Amino acid sequence: MNIKILTPEYVVFEGEVNSVLLPGKNGEFHIMKNHAGIVSSLMGGKVKLFANSIDEAYAKNFTKENEKDSVFSYLIKSGVVEFNHNKGIILCE
Q1: Which end of the chain has the smaller Cβ count within 10 Å, N or C?
Q2: Rounded to an integer, what distance in angstroms lies between the CA atom of residue 15 and that of residue 46?
Q3: In a 10 Å sphere around its CB, with 0-12 CB exposed, 13-18 middle and 19+ buried, how is residue 62 labelled?
């Protein structure tokens, strides 16, 4: 599935991921391939991308959660996510 993470200043990430874990207003939620369409607001916290790898151009924006798993995190203050047809856009601060 394709995920794009945008801030007002720049594109944080754009690429293929296996899934994404997001900090929702009612707790974390996980979006996986073929997830139903959703629009949701996000709280401050970590956006975690589960991906085999991240392009070098975007790697500087992420912290690798651990060496064993391919989990990359990006800290946000707030935001909104829209996901439909295996494409998601995360607008955040």
Answers
A1: C
A2: 18
A3: buried
Phi then psi for residue 57, to 5 deg, are -65, -25
User: In the structure encoding, which two tokens stand for residue 65, read together?
Assistant: 């959660």
- Return the closest-CA partner of residue 54 out of 74, 40, 37: 74
Q: Where are the alpha helices (DSSP H) in the chain?
A: 56-59
Domains observed in the chain: 2-92 (2.60.15.10)
- Taking 3-state DSSP, the helix, strand and coil percentages for the chain, each rounded to the nearest 5, stand at 5, 60, 40
Angstrom distance (rounded) from CA 77 to CA 70:
23
- pLDDT, tens digit (0-9, with 9 covering 90-100), for 9-23: 999 999 999 999 999
pLDDT band for 24, please (50, 70, 90 cuts).
very high
